[in-house]
Q: What sequence folds into this?
């Protein structure tokens, strides 16, 4: 349990996520859940959530899930589809799940939903590379 707490503390120590107001709610091996409430400052000129904010939320969930093993992991590729607009006041939930691992790479599925309606706002498929270094060594 101590190792899991160290991993969570490391992942939560993300200045960009804190700046956005994103909260890591769940982290366990290969899985994370991150929430964010959209503010007026996160809107584009159409009055909807900026795509960069949605991308960032998914990326934070991806980073949390892919680093949840305590091994340093970095993104190789991210492919995102925006499916529904959101607006200020909406609470978005990004959930990342490990789908496949092969050697130093792993594939993740990320869903970003409107917390109130459950509707899918965006979906991404992300590939990570795991370096030969551990920020929290295996027991």
A:
């Amino acid at each position: 349990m101590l190792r899991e707490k160290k991993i969570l503390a490391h992942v939560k120590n993300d200045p960009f996520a804190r700046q956005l107001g994103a909260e890591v709610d769940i982290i366990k091996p290969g899985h994370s859940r991150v929430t964010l409430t959209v503010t007026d400052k996160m809107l584009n000129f159409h009055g909807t959530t900026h795509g960069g904010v949605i991308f960032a939320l998914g990326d934070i969930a991806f980073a949390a899930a892919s680093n949840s093993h305590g091994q340093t992991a970095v993104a190789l590729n991210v492919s995102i589809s925006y499916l529904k607009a959101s607006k200020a006041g909406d609470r978005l939930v990004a959930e990342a799940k490990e789908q496949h691992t092969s050697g130093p790479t792993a594939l993740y599925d990320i869903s970003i939903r409107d917390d109130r309606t459950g509707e899918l706002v965006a979906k991404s498929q992300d590939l990570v590379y795991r370096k030969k270094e551990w920020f929290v060594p295996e027991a």
